[in-house]
Amino acid sequence: MLKSIKKWFFAIRPYSFFVSMSTVIMSAAIAFSEGHVKWLPAALCLLFAVLAQTTSNLVNDYADFQTGCDNENSLSKDRKLVSGEITQKEMRIAIFISAALCLFVGLPLIYWGGWILLPFGLLIIAAAFCYSMGPIPLSYNALGDIAVILFFGIIPVSFTYFILTKEINWEIIAAGFAMGLVVDELLIVNNIRDEEEDKLFNKTTTVGIFGSKFMKTVFLLNPLIACGLGFYFMKDICNYKVWAIAIIPLVIYSLILFRNLNRYKGKQLNELLGKASMESMIFAITVLIVSLI
After folding, report:
1. Residue 290: CB partners within 8 Å, gap ≥ 6?
2. Would 143 disulfide with which of 85, 138, 210, 233, CB 3.0-4.6 Å?
3. Which of these, 144, 142, 124, 223, lies nearest to 181 by C-alpha position?
């Protein structure tokens, strides 16, 4: 029993949950600071985000196994189909259950946000599949970074805010874009690690197109741009001096990650995945703390 729990625990890649949770935490913090305190829908948004992330992770594992991108020589340690710990049938059942739970959790949010949420909720679930599967899988056609910015940034941040406030403005869209840039850090590390394998199986990523050196520069700039955008979307919550001081820990953390990204190679990059995921949570917590001041 314990062994079974352990294999599924690693299969869903819990280290990546920081990126989905951070979107909701940041958006809810901004809404709460404006007097829109609604704990139940905020909690449901958080659970929906985690389940959507889980579905995406499981689908990615299944799709990469089907295409051969994942094999016994893969650098990732979380691929349970390759290791034989999980069968393809078990993975398909798990994907179905995860997607169904995601829909089940998301439906009550219609009470707060209206029926307009339904097509967008279905779009988010569909994106979890289209990221790695379908006739034009996004992650195989250099669209992974755009998908991340949209579906792990702009869309969840904007619609969490909409559910809590009944409105969407340019500030919250900018906040979502900023979060999407920070979340993209995780994908960049993943694609740099898998650069050689992806080439062998015709998986096109931005790293494959522009090269790892260029994408390492993007890795450095993403959080800095996000912090810069904070001067805009946080302007009604705090003055620029407070924000400038608040982002110092995130900037230092991002620079350390950038240094390590240039130093690490191969399987060493697995260590950076969780740390890159944590970067988005630090960003969200920064917004949360400033919003509470």
Report:
1. 234, 237, 238, 242, 243, 246
2. 138
3. 223
Predicted confidence (pLDDT) per residue in 56-111, tens digit: 888 888 887 776 665 555 555 566 677 677 888 888 899 999 999 999 999 999 99
CA distances from 91 to 6, 128, 201 (A): 15, 15, 22
CB burial of residue 136 (10 Å; 0-12, 13-18, 19+) = exposed
**Cβ neighbours, 10 Å, residue 16:** 24
Please give the biggest Cα pair distance in the chain.
55
Measured in residues, the chain has a length of 293
In the block, which residue shows the tokens 């779009």? 123
Q: Is 287 exposed, middle or buried (CB count within 10 Å of its CB: 0-12, 13-18, 19+)?
A: buried
pLDDT in tens, 133-180: 767 778 788 888 999 999 999 999 999 999 999 999 999 999 999 999
CA angle at 279 for the pair 59 and 220, rounded to the nearest 5°? 100
Predicted TM-score (pTM) above 0.85: yes
Cα separation, 48 vs 132, whole angstroms: 20
Token pair of 3 as six digits: 């062994």
Distance of CA 233 to the CA centre of its chain: 20
Q: What share of the chain is helix, strand, coil (3-state, %, to 5)?
A: 80, 0, 20
**Dihedral over alpha carbons 250, 277, 183, 134 (to 10 degrees):** 170
Under a CB-based contact definition with an 8 Å cutoff, are residues 104 and 51 in contact?
Answer: no
